[in-house]
Design brief:
The complex is a heterodimer of chains A (about 425) and B (about 375).
Chain A lengths: L6 H17 L5 H6 L12 H14 L18 H11 L10 H14 L2 H12 L5 E4 L15 E5 L2 E12 L6 E7 L10 E7 L5 E5 L9 E12 L3 E2 L5 H14 L9 H10 L1 E2 L2 E2 L4 H29 L11 H18 L18 H12 L6 H12 L24
Parallel strand pairs in A: 1-4
Antiparallel strand pairs in A: 2-3, 3-7, 4-5, 5-8, 6-7, 9-10
Helix pairs in contact in A: 1-4, 5-6, 5-7, 8-9, 8-10, 9-10, 10-11
Chain B lengths: L6 H17 L2 H8 L7 H9 L18 H13 L6 H15 L2 H12 L5 E4 L15 E3 L2 E10 L6 E7 L9 E7 L5 E6 L8 E10 L1 E3 L5 H37 L1 E2 L2 E2 L4 H30 L4 H27 L10 H11 L6 H17 L1
Parallel strand pairs in B: 1-4
Antiparallel strand pairs in B: 2-3, 3-7, 4-5, 5-8, 6-7, 9-10
Helix pairs in contact in B: 1-4, 4-7, 5-6, 5-7, 7-8, 7-9, 7-10, 8-9, 9-10, 9-11
Classes of the chains: A alpha+beta (about 425), B alpha+beta (about 375).
């Protein structure tokens, strides 16, 4: 048991570190360090521009998406070297948030199902951040039950005609391309009539409407499709095999380990270390300490769980299912942490103005953003089902709609 | 990075699991729990023969000289099987204290006897209600004799020797405390077994009356030695807790798969699945914190105090969580004497207090994190 790099890993780390030291946009380092859930602001600069510039710079030196094959804009590094790169990139990795969906989910799906020519055409600009991709899966009628989606794809010669609506599409408003799952046959059971495509987000008939979220920001969108034409050559996987294609996409989430899941703990610890209560520093208070300790061990538990997965990668194994706990633990934790940080501030905890609120309103922003962390990318409940079924081997839910033709499934609860 | 046990260590774990599955079924735990024996002598002998008692004791003192990572994997299995033997008191507390602070002669006398299963040792620290602190130690040492009362002392009534924390000063500082080694069979100590929440491991009251004692380690350094012993034992007991958590989770999972209600296995109901998924989460977080503790323990890293406290807290929470929800999954049957759920419930709650309570370790962790932060 050790934390040491192998000689090859150490060499790779040194190379990555040196390049980052010489090239990272250090003028934003302090602000990036202060960024937390619900707030990424760079004074006097547009986050999208800074992020694209950093991604481009990395691409020019071969550091964009290092684990991808060289031909597709990567560097061909091993899974463990990918983790080392993430560790070394540190806070600058926060700038990669805009590219996560494209590079983490759309890219691997393209790699598995697109033609060689398409891969060489579309993947390098996705790697370099020149093009941003989004994932068009969720719908008003299909969130956790994503296979309940209703966006129709109908064949018309060499094209498909798409009509319907997607929702909760992160970054659709600044995306160039998207992967889209549709219903191609409503007369068969729901998992068996789906087909996957990729498309240009500027195609005629695509309309993007930002969602004003509960926290007042707009990171997600509704995307409407009205007679949008997609050539059959942009189909990914076989007709009606879209469910299996989507599983490839979702499986890639499992591999994106090593990245830090935000728990809010380091921020809370620092806050309690500096906050003065009536009878002394908050961190000297017994009750505060008890709360902090419980969260400390959850945060460290997640960190060392990812270390265990990294070790498996280093040995050339696939990480085990234990990594699936990350978002489940961190999602509700960050909400609790934010709630507690406000509690410590008393009535003034209500205030959100940067001048009035403690730590410029960091915890207030976190509180207002945090409900989404327990929903996005798999709700807490879906994640618990996954752990129960795939890790513990408990029976799947009874699915009353599993064998029913999709167009016979009821669409309303109380009539 | 290789943040995992080696193949050899995993083999040792499998070997220990097989051995304990055979020699320590729930029936053996119940024999002690129900008062038919004060500990399982056959099992104790077997553990000695397997080389498990002295796995971390150097060869020159009769041990296997393997190391603490090996001891961690064995501890996990001891915890999983709820072994009703004085393993924690003898191996994690007494042997660790001897290895840290014992004189050559003390080590020569006691460590080989521990390895061979001939001597049971313990640490006499607590004096009634309260958590570890120098102020709480009232038992007095003067002129090489001890006077005072210790309770609870793990396995105190069956132990052959005890490491005793005693007051040798009154300055109000940590340096008031010194450690002593007492041969409990030499007279001067009265031992009384006490009832406790987990009778499968004994607790006792030891009354010292002008009892002869030899110093263990330098005078006035007792508290700092003790802190180190507690940190080391915290990691090792955390592995017992992780082993127990895993077993309680498995029991709940198995019952949920077999038990039919409303025409389906209860494990197909989300309410039950989510209960079990949350148990898995606690057990996984605890295991990961424990691995870090194992690394720190085995390398004597400067991170050990913080790592030990984190492992202790996380594993305490996990075992309590898994053992209580194992009963919940079992429903009414989980509350019968006949089902084994309560054995885990009892053990989890005893271990949670054994080195000082959860709130004590929470306080300790934040204290240590704060000091590191300030440094």
């Amino acid at each position: 048991m050790n934390f040491d790099d192998t000689p090859q890993e150490a060499e790779f780390r040194a190379k990555a570190r040196a390049w980052i030291a010489a090239n990272a946009p250090k003028q934003y380092e302090a602000e990036l360090k202060k960024a937390s859930l619900g707030r990424l602001k760079l004074d006097g600069a547009n986050v999208l521009d800074v992020a694209k510039a950093w991604q481009k710079k990395k691409a020019e030196a071969g550091w964009a998406v290092p684990h991808w094959p060289k031909d597709y804009g990567g560097r061909g590094v091993s899974p463990i070297e990918r983790v080392i790169w993430q560790q070394e990139e540190g806070v600058f990795g926060k700038l990669g948030a805009l590219f996560i969906i494209g590079q983490g989910m759309c890219g691997p799906t393209m790699m598995a199902y697109a033609t060689e020519e398409q891969k060489r055409h579309y993947l390098p600009p996705l790697a370099s951040g020149e093009n941003i991709w989004c994932q068009l899966f969720s719908e008003p009628a299909g969130g956790s039950d994503v296979a309940g989606l209703r966006t129709r794809a109908e064949r018309d010669g060499d094209d498909w005609i798409i009509n319907g609506q997607k929702i909760w599409t992160s970054g659709a408003h600044y995306s160039d391309y998207g992967i889209l799952i549709t219903r191609s046959d409503p007369t068969v059971p729901k998992h068996k009539g789906l087909t996957m495509f990729f498309l240009d987000m500027r195609s005629k008939g695509v309309e993007i409407k930002p969602i004003k979220q509960a926290n007042g920001n707009s990171d997600f969108n509704e995307v409407y499709f009205t007679d949008v034409r997609i050539p059959d050559s942009q189909r990914l996987g076989a007709v009606n095999d879209g469910w299996n294609v989507s599983l490839t996409t979702l499986m890639n989430e499992r591999m994106s380990i090593g990245a830090n899941v935000a728990t809010g703990f380091p921020e809370l610890f620092e806050f309690c270390n500096n906050l003065m209560l009536e009878d002394g520093p908050a961190i000297d208070d017994r009750a505060v300490r008890s709360k902090l300790a419980s969260w400390a061990v959850r945060a460290s538990g997640l960190k060392y769980t990812s270390f265990r997965a990294i070790s498996a990668l280093s040995r050339g194994e696939r990480p085990g299912p234990e990594n699936s706990i990350g978002k489940l633990v961190a999602g509700s934790m960050i909400q609790d942490v934010a709630t507690y940080a406000l509690d410590l501030q008393g009535a003034a905890g209500m205030l959100t103005g940067a001048e009035d609120a403690e730590v410029a309103g960091r915890f207030q922003a976190m509180l207002l953003r945090s409900p989404a962390t327990r929903v996005e990318g798999g709700t807490d409940e879906i994640l618990r089902n996954i752990i129960a079924e795939r890790v513990l081997g408990l029976p799947g839910d009874i699915r009353v709609d599993k064998d029913v033709p999709f167009n016979k499934i009821p669409t309303k609860g109380r009539a | 990075m290789n943040f995992d046990f080696s193949d050899d260590q995993k083999q040792l774990r499998d070997q220990a699991r097989r051995f304990l599955a055979e020699k320590c079924p729930p029936k053996a735990v119940r024999a002690v729990l129900e008062g038919n024996a004060d500990y399982d002598r056959e099992l104790w002998k077997g553990l000695a023969e397997m080389g498990f008692l002295g796995v971390a004791i150097p060869e020159e003192f009769g041990g296997a000289g393997a190391g603490h990572l090996e001891l961690c994997v064995i501890a996990e299995e001891i915890g999983r099987a709820l072994a009703p033997v004085p393993f924690a008191s003898t191996v994690y507390l007494a042997a660790e204290a001897l290895m840290l602070a014992g004189s050559e002669a003390q080590k020569r006398k006691w460590l080989p006897a521990i390895s061979s299963g001939e001597a049971i040792g313990t640490l006499a620290l607590f004096e009634g209600t309260g958590n570890p602190s120098p102020q709480a130690i009232k038992l007095v040492a003067s002129n090489g004799t001890l006077t005072g009362v210790k309770k609870p002392v793990p396995d105190g009534a069956i132990a052959d020797f005890a490491i005793v924390a005693a007051r040798t000063g009154s300055s109000g500082r940590e340096t008031d405390i010194s450690l002593f080694l007492v041969d409990l069979k030499a007279g001067g100590v009265e031992a009384k077994a006490l009832q406790n929440v987990d009778p499968s491991r004994q607790q006792a009251e030891l009354t010292f009356k002008n009892c002869k004692a030899e110093p263990l380690g330098p005078a006035n350094e007792g508290w700092s030695i003790l802190s180190r012993v507690l940190d080391r034992a915290a990691v090792l007991i955390a592995f017992e807790q992780v082993g127990g958590s895993d077993r309680a989770l498995e029991m709940g999972r198995d019952y949920a798969l077999d038990r039919i209600a409303f025409g389906r296995p209860i494990g197909s109901f989300q309410a039950v699945k989510h209960l079990l998924a949350d148990m898995y989460v606690s057990a996984t977080l605890a295991r990961s914190n424990c691995y870090y503790g194992a690394w720190a323990l085995s390398t004597n890293a400067s991170e050990l105090p913080e790592a030990a406290a984190a492992a202790r807290i996380s594993a305490t929470q996990a075992f309590q969580h898994c053992s209580k929800n194992n009963i919940q999954v079992h429903g009414g049957m989980g509350f019968t004497w006949e089902f084994d759920c309560h054995l885990y419930y009892r053990r989890s709650n005893a271990l949670a207090l054994s080195l000082g309570s959860l709130s004590y370790w929470e306080d300790t962790l934040i204290d240590r994190m704060r000091k590191k932060n300030a440094a």
